[in-house]
C-alpha cells in the first residue's frame, strides 16, 4: 500500500482532533452534573420546578468562569457548551415544534380587514380546503376567489386596492399580478415572524436552539433541546405580542347584566328547541358541556352561575376591575354562553361593545380548584384599543417597592401623550393592560401619568414571566398569529432513561461484535476491532465538531455503520482466505484482497447504494430522521476509511514482521469453505414461499390495515406514567367520558406506563384547545393519579411521581404533508438506486433484480407489521421512524445484493466457458460465508439494542431486524434468481432484434 506514512499521520491527527472535540462534551456534562447535584441538595424533594430553577442558577453562576486552562487558551462553561455534542429531544428532553404563520391573517391585514363578501367567502372556502390539501394557502384562496368573485377583482378598493397598498397595487390591476404582490408581502411577513421568533428564542437561554424556515410554506421549525418549562416555551413562541391598553368596567357596572344573563341561560338550557337549532353549528361535545354531564335536567337545573361566579359589589368599597371568576375547566363553556345572541341582546346600551377577557393566570381557590378571573373591557364599534403596543420603546424586568417582579415599559413621545390623556380621563377608574387578549393587570388610576413610563405587574407574577413578557415586547410583534401545528415534547426523565438504555445497549452491541470478530478471524479480527473502535471515535468526533444533534435513531444509524464497517472487513478477509485456499502466498492474498479486483469494488458499490439511501432520507426527513441519515452518511465515510486503510496498515505491519496470519481460528476453521449450492434450482420454491408471505401480508394490510402513527394521521399522543400497574382497557373506557369517544390506549414499556392517542378536538385551532385537551386528559385520569396536581402532571420537568412523560401533536394538514414526503423518499431512493445499479452493471436485469428484491423486502416488513401490531407488547406504528427503518432495510438489502452481483460480474469475466447458471450458483456459494457472517453480526447488534434499548425505539429496531433477515434471504433467493430470469429474456430479445 502506497502513502502509508501519510495515512498514519492523518489517522493520528484525526483521532486527536476527535478526542479534543469530545473533551468539550465531557467537560460540559461534568458542570451540568454538578448543577443537578447542587439542585438536589438545595431543593425540596418533590419540587421539580424549583430544582430546575436552582440548576439554572448554578449554571448562570459558573457560565463565565474558566473551567479549563490549556496554557495557550482558556475556556469558560459557555465556551465549552457551544462546542459540545448536542443531544436530541429523545435523549435530552425538550420541545420540537412546527409553527404555521397564518397567511389568512396576513391577507386580512393587507385588506384592512375587508368586509367584501366575495373576499371573506373565498377565505372561508380556502380554510375548508386546506384541511384536506397540501396546496399553498394563497393558491387555494386565489382559486376560490376566481370561482366566487365574478367580475370583482382583488384590486377592488374594498379589498386590496387600498390607500396603504396604492404604491404596490394599482386600481383595476389583473388578479394574477395582484397575487404576485400578495405573495411578496406574505414572504416578507413570514421573514419578519422568523426574525421575531429567533430574537425571542435567543433570549430564552436554551443550549443550542435551532430555528429554521421550511421552504415557502409559511412554516417555521423550532427545536429547543433541554427545555423543561414547556408551558413557558409554548407561550413564548406563540405569543403574538399584541399589547393594548383599554378602559375597564367595574363589577358594579356589569352585575345587573350577569343576573339577567343567568336567567336567560337557564331558559336556554331548558328550551331544547334552541339547542336543536344550534346542533348544526355546535359539536356534540360542546352541547354536552352546556348541558353538563347529567342530561336529566330534573336533577340539577343549569344556569350561567353554574359555571361563572360573579364578583358582586354591595358598596363603593367593593368596586373592582374583576367582574367574575370561573373554574379553568369551564372557561370555554362561559365563553360560549356569553357569546350567544340571546345573551348579548341583554347588554344595555352603555355596555353594548363590552368584551369579556380572562386573566393571563389562574389561582387556587380555597378548595384547591384552579380559578381564573374575568374582566369586562370597554370595547368600541371598531374594536380598536385606546393605545396599542407600537408606542413601546423599551421594556425590561424590574422589581417594585415590595420587591415583586414587574415589567417596566418606556413609551415614545406619541405614546406618552396618549397615556397621559388616557390616565387623566380614567382617574378613579380602572385601566387594563392586555397582551394577546389576556389581561395582565387592571389597576385603578389615582392620577394622570405624564412621564411616559408604566408597568405590567401581577400579584403572582414570577421573575421568569416578567422576563418573557419583556422579551416578546422588545423582540416585536408577530405580523400574524403563529400556531403550533406539530409538536413533540419529551420530558427530561424520559430523556435520561433513553440515555441510560442507549449507553447499555450500545456498549453491549459493540462488545458482541468485538468478541465475534476475534472468535471468527483470530488476530485479523483483533485488527478489525481496532479499526472499528477508531471508526466510532471518528464518528463521534465529527458529530461533535459540526455540532450535529445525536438522537436515538442516530445511535441506531451508528450501530448500522458499525455493521457495515464489519461487513467491509468480512468481505476483505473472505477474499484473502480464498487466496490462501488457492495456495497463493499471504502477501499476495492480502494485496489482492484489498484491491479493486478483489474486495474493494464490492465494498465501494455497496457503500454508495447505502449512501444514496442516506441522502434521500436527509432530504425528505425531519428531526430525528435527519439525525439518523446524517450519522449513517458520516458512518459510511469513516467506515470505508477505517476498514480499508486502518485495517490494512495493521495487517501489513503484521505480515512484514513475518507473522503467520490465518484469518480464522480453531473454532471457525473450515466454515463456509468448499460450499456448492445450486441456488437457481430452488428459485421456484423460493418464489412460492415469498409469494405466499407477500399475499398474506397484502390481505392483512387491506383487511386489518396498518397502525398509522400520529405523524401520519394527525392527533395527539401522550405517554403517561403512573405509580401503579394500569389496565389499558379500563383507562380507555374512563377517558371516553372526557373525550367523547374512547381513545387508543396501550401499555408502553412497563405496565405502569401507557400511550394514549386521541383525535379529540384535533381539527380545532388555538393554543387554548391544547390546554383544554390536556385538562380533559387529567380529569379523565385523576382517579389514578393520587396526589399529583395538574401542574405536576403536565409534560416537562423531572417527574417524581405520575405525569406526562412525552407528548406529540400533529394536525391533519401537516400529517398529509409528512405522509407525502415519506412516499417521495421511498420511491425516490428506489429510482436513484435503480439508475446507479444500471450504470455500474450495464444490464437492466441487474437493476430489475435489485429493485424487485427491495419491493419484496418492503412488502414483507409491512405485512409483518400489519399481522402482528395488535398483539406485540411494543409500539408498531407506521410513521416517520418506520419510513427511516424501511429505507435502511432498502440500503442493507441492496448492500447484500450488490456484493453478490459484483461477484457474478467477476466470475462472468474469469470463467467465460461456464454456463451462466453455473456462474451464478458459484458466485452465490462463494459469497455465502460473507453474507451469513455479516447478517449474523448485524442481527446480534440490533437484537442487543432491541432488548436493552428504550421503549421508543423498539418498533424501529423490530422493523430493522425483520428487514435484515428478509434482506439476507432475498439477496440469495429473490434478487439473483430474478436477475437470472430477466437476463435470459433480455438475451432472447437482444438476439431476436439482432437477427
UniProtKB/TrEMBL annotation:
Domain of life: Bacteria
All residue ranges annotated as the SecDF P1 head subdomain domain in the record: 383-480
Subcellular location: Cell membrane
Pfam families in UniProt: Sec_GG, SecD_1st, SecD_SecF_C, SecDF_P1_head
TM regions (residue ranges): 501-519, 526-546, 552-573, 594-621, 627-651, 685-706, 821-839, 846-872, 878-895, 932-950, 956-980
UniProtKB keywords: Cell membrane, Membrane, Protein transport, Translocation, Transmembrane, Transmembrane helix, Transport
Keyword Protein transport appears in the UniProt entry: yes
Protein translocase subunit SecDF P1 domain boundaries: 192-248
Protein export membrane protein SecD/SecF C-terminal domain segment(s): 481-650, 804-984
InterPro entries noted in UniProt: SecD, SecD/SecF_arch_bac, SecD/SecF_bac, SecD/SecF_CS, SecD_1st, SecD_SecF_C, SecD_SecF_C_bact, SecDF_P1_head
Keyword Aminoacyl-tRNA synthetase found: no
Topological relation to the membrane, as annotated: Multi-pass membrane protein
Gene3D superfamilies xrefs: 3.30.1360.200, 3.30.70.3220, Multidrug efflux transporter AcrB transmembrane domain (1.20.1640.10)
Major localisation: membrane
Subunit structure: Forms a complex with SecD. Part of the essential Sec protein translocation apparatus which comprises SecA, SecYEG and auxiliary proteins SecDF. Other proteins may also be involved.
Reported function: Part of the Sec protein translocase complex. Interacts with the SecYEG preprotein conducting channel. SecDF uses the proton motive force (PMF) to complete protein translocation after the ATP-dependent function of SecA.
PANTHER family: PROTEIN TRANSLOCASE SUBUNIT SECD, PROTEIN-EXPORT MEMBRANE PROTEIN SEC
Family recorded in the similarity comment: Belongs to the SecD/SecF family. SecD subfamily.
Protein name: Multifunctional fusion protein
